[in-house]
């Protein structure tokens, strides 16, 4: 496998900035790709060791392009996550005035994060989506659009000027990025982990989602993301992307996944990996009755009952 990481490009994206925070990125060739799909396909095809892509932001939730790519196709697995605080700059060609801006562009995930600013400052500007924020900057450089919302750091890369900076509708907005590779043994638990799965119901029935969530709830597992995605099989057919606290080696998580495998049509394991938002000191205590020791003790009690030693 070539020692390279694919990422959502071109150069100058928030994705690249987040990727460079990983220590191992310094030892890999970082290759920009034009889309999330092409970056992940590079991993599936053996062109890259892993891909680094955005998966969630704190304003709009899950990034559907990435979720759909992980739901479909050859299975991939998440190994790491990174959180990056996001603020935008309005990048223009030198000499452009705010009153002259008629068209703006950026990645679709950026629009909900600057919508109010755009309405207040450029109410008549036409929005067009770009493959990435940096690609929007490149299109402004080429004269295709008047302005782009991107990181201020992208201005020098594309010969642009930051006309406005610090643009955001929500304070403390963050985007979550993940390092995705081919399936392998998950890293050892750290005590502050997250497990991601995709679930497909066997059939649509009253209480179906409750049944799925009950496998987590009865074992004291907190959910951090729950998002439905259409399966493509028709209106009303959905699968569920879930992030849960804990590691697959935790007994409560393993038993929840066992229960889901029994009742679901399909379960896709997307990985267990360290959480980026807390360290082990910040992890909530497990609920009484859900620790590994208590699962072992309960299983031992059942075994003793079966042997007549209760």
Q: In words, what does this structure look like?
A:
The longest helix is centred in the C-terminal third of the chain and has 15 residues, at 292-306. A hairpin with a 3-residue loop joins strand 3 and strand 4. It is elongated and about 85 Å long. It has nine helices and 15 strands. With 310 residues, it is of the alpha/beta class. It has helices spanning 14-19, 36-44, 64-71, 111-121, 133-141, 154-157, 208-217, 251-263, 292-306; strands at 4-8, 29-33, 50-57, 61-62, 77-85, 88-92, 103-106, 126-129, 147-150, 161-167, 174-181, 193-201, 223-230, 238-245, 264-274.
List the helices and strands and how they pair.
Layout: E1 4-8, H1 14-19, E2 29-33, H2 36-44, E3 50-57, E4 61-62, H3 64-71, E5 77-85, E6 88-92, E7 103-106, H4 111-121, E8 126-129, H5 133-141, E9 147-150, H6 154-157, E10 161-167, E11 174-181, E12 193-201, H7 208-217, E13 223-230, E14 238-245, H8 251-263, E15 264-274, H9 292-306
Main attributes of the structure:
9 helices, 15 strands, five-stranded mixed β-sheet, 310 residues
């Amino acid at each position: 496998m070539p020692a390279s990481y694919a990422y959502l490009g071109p150069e100058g994206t928030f994705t690249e900035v987040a990727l460079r925070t990983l220590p191992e990125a310094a030892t890999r060739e970082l290759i920009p790709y034009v889309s999330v799909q092409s970056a992940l396909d590079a991993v599936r095809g053996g062109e890259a060791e892993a891909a680094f892509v955005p998966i969630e932001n704190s304003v709009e939730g899950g990034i559907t392009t990435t979720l759909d790519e992980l739901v479909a196709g050859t299975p991939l697995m998440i190994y790491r996550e990174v959180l990056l605080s996001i603020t935008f700059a309005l990048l223009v060609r030198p000499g452009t005035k705010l009153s002259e801006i008629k068209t703006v562009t950026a990645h679709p995930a950026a629009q909900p994060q600057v919508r109010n600013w755009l309405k207040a400052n450029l109410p008549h500007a036409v929005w067009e989506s770009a493959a990435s924020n940096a690609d929007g900057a490149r299109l402004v450089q080429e004269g295709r659009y008047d302005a782009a919302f991107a990181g201020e750091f992208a201005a020098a890369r594309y010969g642009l000027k930051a006309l406005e900076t610090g643009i955001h509708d929500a304070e403390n907005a963050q985007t979550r990025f993940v390092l995705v590779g081919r399936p392998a043994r998950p890293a050892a638990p750290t005590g502050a982990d997250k497990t991601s799965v995709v679930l497909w119901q066997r059939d649509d029935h009253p209480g179906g989602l409750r049944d799925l969530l009950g496998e987590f709830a009865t074992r004291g597992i907190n959910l951090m993301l729950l998002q439905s995605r259409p399966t493509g099989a028709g209106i009303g057919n959905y699968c569920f992307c879930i992030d849960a606290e804990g590691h697959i080696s935790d007994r409560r998580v393993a038993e929840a996944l066992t229960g889901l495998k029994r009742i679901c049509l399909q379960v896709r394991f997307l990985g267990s990996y360290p959480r980026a938002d807390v360290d082990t000191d910040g992890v909530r205590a497990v609920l009484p009755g859900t620790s590994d020791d208590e699962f072992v003790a309960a299983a031992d009690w059942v075994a003793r009952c079966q042997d007549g030693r209760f």
